[in-house]
Amino acid sequence: RMYYCKNHNIDYNINQEEIPLNLPLVDEFVEKLKKENSEDILKDWKCLMIQHQFGDHYVQTKGLADLGLKPKNIFWQDIPYTENKLLREYLIENIKIPRENFFLNDYKLTMNYVG
User: Fold this and answer.
1) pTM for this predicted structure
2) Counting Cβ atoms within 10 Å, is residue 93 exposed (0-12), middle (13-18) or buried (19+)?
3) Of residues 32, 16, 15, the one with CA closest to residue 24
4) CB-based contact 69:31 (threshold 8 Å)
5) Which has fewest Cβ within 10 Å: 35, 62, 87, 115?
6) Measured on CA atoms in the order 67, 59, 94, 96, is the torsion positive or negative?
7) Close Cβ partners of 98 (under 8 Å, ≥ 6 residues apart)
8) CB-count burial class (<10 Å; 0-12, 13-18, 19+) for 70
9) Contact at 8 Å (CB) between 90 and 58?
10) What is the rounded CA–CA span in Å between residue 67 and residue 50?
């Protein structure tokens, strides 16, 4: 199924160093899924997120939790050059993802990628 935001003219610019508390398209998508399914549709799921850590990923992660994904079942492998301590601490504090579920890496772009 395809989902579309009612307001196709959404115009917002996100500073990735800020953490937005909502995004219209994500909010609408989560509400639609909650109406069509049980609110805890993801209660038995585990999620490994291998992605950048941008501020707007808070809303994405909150949406998963709102759909029943338990914080203890959210794991995050960071991409070192976009590691975002502010976002990580916000997710730990507000969504209650255990600190040990974040896998950090000290790789820098100036390092050789292979051994």
Assistant:
1) 0.76
2) exposed
3) 32
4) no
5) 115
6) positive
7) 71, 72, 92
8) middle
9) yes
10) 20
Pair of tokens at residue 15: 């500073």
> How many CB atoms are located within 10 Å of the residue 68 CB?
17
Decide if 59 contacts 33 (C-beta within 8 A). Answer: no
Report residue 58 CA to chain centroid gap: 5
| Per-residue pLDDT tens over the stretch 41-97 | 999 999 999 888 888 899 999 999 999 999 999 999 887 777 788 899 999 999 999
Query: 86 near 52, Cβ under 8 Å?
Result: no
What 3-state class would DSSP assign to 74? strand
